[in-house]
Amino acid sequence: MYKKWWPVTLLILGTAYLSLPGAVLVFAQSLDHAVLFISVNILVTAVYPLDRPPKTRRIRSQLEDAAMTVRKEHYIYF
After folding, report:
1. Dihedral sign from CA coordinates of 45, 41, 69, 72
2. I want to staple 52 with a disulfide (CB 3.0 to 4.6 A). Which of 20, 56, 61, 64 is the partner?
3. With contact defined as beta carbons under 8 Å apart, do 44 and 63 qualify?
4. CA 54 – CA 58 distance, rounded (Å)
5. Which 8-state DSSP code applies to residue 2?
């Protein structure tokens, strides 16, 4: 009974094996974008308090602009 199914099984396993690198690349790319998004958000929140001098507020707004640019360029929408 199992002898007539082995070509189908090999075909399925071969297809899965060949499509694995593509799936890994897509996952790695999305993971890379997520890490980039998180690191930019950490930079933005590092200067979060608004009761600091205007210079810090200006730096914070520049970081927020950079975060928005990163989100737009890398199509990150959370």
Report:
1. negative
2. 56
3. yes
4. 6
5. G
- The CA dihedral of 24, 28, 34, 40, to the nearest 10 degrees, is 180
Segments of the chain assigned E as strands: none
Cβ–Cβ under 8 Å, residues 67 and 42: no
CA distance 67 to 61: 10
What number of residues does the chain have?
78
CA 29/CA 44 separation, integer angstroms: 23
Tell me the pTM.
0.29
Q: Chain-wide mean pLDDT for the chain? A: 67
Question: In the Cβ-directed half-sphere of 72, how many Cα atoms lie within 13 Å?
Answer: 6
